Amino acid sequence: MSGDLLQRLSTFIPSVKPFQLSDIVVPSLPLPSPTVPCSEVPILFREPYILTGYRPVQQKWHCYLLSLFQKHNESINVWTHLLAAPVLLLHWRANLGPLGYTLDVASLPLLVFLVSSLTYLFLSAAAHLFQSHSEHAHYFFFFMDYVGVAVYQYGCCIGHYFYTSQPAWRDSLVGSLFLPGAAFFSCLTCACCCFAKSRFQRPYPVGRKACQLIPTSLAYLLDISPVVHRLFTASWAEERSLLFHALQIASFLLCAVFFSCPIPERFFPGRCDFVGQGHQIFHLFLSLCTLFQQEALFQDYVRRRDTVVEIFGSVTPGPSPLHTNAPTSEVQLFLSHSLGCSRETEKEVAFFYTTVSCDLLKQYNAALQCPVRMTSLRKHGVRVQENILFIFPAPSPCLRGKHGRQGGRYMHACATKGCY
């Protein structure tokens, strides 16, 4: 029987087609062509003082994608922003737990900043990766790069306005025009950069750089104004975020230097073709600026989350204020007799008192016997040296106030000293 089985196998095996790897493996894609000197690419793609490391034009699109792993004069420009994106995401994730981050109205500006940062990083990396394909691709991808810059500018303004700005600054003329002005200058920056890119040809005149830098500088001066105001008015010892705000300003100023001037390659032509270009250093400092900015906004978010609630309203949908019908006179009367506050303080506290929600108060629950503790008036721009106001959403064993029952909810306020 075994002989019959072997005979059958011997007749079957020759009829089976031999296995070949080419039957299941897709033919390999062509690899990117080797880099060439500047004399072999059109003048549009040449950079001042960069003599070698250019990718040939008119290759297949996948060749430029695969050039991500090739050594050329755009490699570091791509990787500096490509790696910055996961760093921001990891930094974001690392802070979610400690911050108690939840997706609500108060956290939306922080989310807008993250999305805008990832947008400019992705579009910048794509521009430097694919711009060598053709003249059309060069203009298209760099125009999209300028769109990413505009989006990032406005995302920074949103974060600075809602988390960093002081009440005195928001009440000023600059503060009242800040958001519409930021939108205008973001669009102006994008339009001027696109115009300068398409209007001027290499070798670029000074007017092209001025067309890019003037609107960008105006946009930055407006964007950074709430940060500068806070740096000069707030206490650096009490607010750790001010250090990171200072670092982001220093990083951006260094960005401006290396973006405006082709250094150090101007002094070493041909020696910075692959590593050490001014634009590469510009990318590096811009990534650091974004990281410092995100850390500063995280700390501002923790410390000033209630400011966002004050501007937007309740963090929860629907009518959930602590006491929307609380008579202002009652709050003022209590403060006048118990704290001796000024009229300005009374007005500020009365407004704040009627807009805080119970859900927000629960997030400030401390290790106390009292149900909920509220932040001090100092965080709302109210100058109270010793007295601190605490608001409780329900009758507290810590306090038996004289306030009445309004709308089915008790109102209690407690003035203490040295309890910050």
How is this structure best described in words?
With 420 residues, the protein is mostly helical. The protein has 2 domains: 73-312, Rhopdopsin 7-helix transmembrane proteins (Up-down Bundle), CATH 1.20.1070; 328-417, no CATH class. The protein has helices spanning 2-12, 61-66, 75-99, 108-130, 135-164, 167-170, 173-176, 178-199, 206-233, 241-260, 278-312, 328-338, 343-353, 358-362, and strands at 387-392, 405-406, 409-410, 412-417. The strands form 2 sheets. It has a two-stranded antiparallel ribbon with strand order 1-4. It has a two-stranded antiparallel ribbon with strand order 2-3. β2 and β3 (409-410) form a beta hairpin. α4 runs antiparallel to α5 (135-164) and α5 (135-164) packs parallel to α9 (206-233). It is elongated and about 60 Å long. Mean pLDDT is 75; it is low at 5-26 and 314-420.
Note the main attributes of this structure.
two-stranded antiparallel ribbon, 4 strands, single chain, disordered C terminus, Rhopdopsin 7-helix transmembrane proteins, mainly alpha, 420 residues, elongated
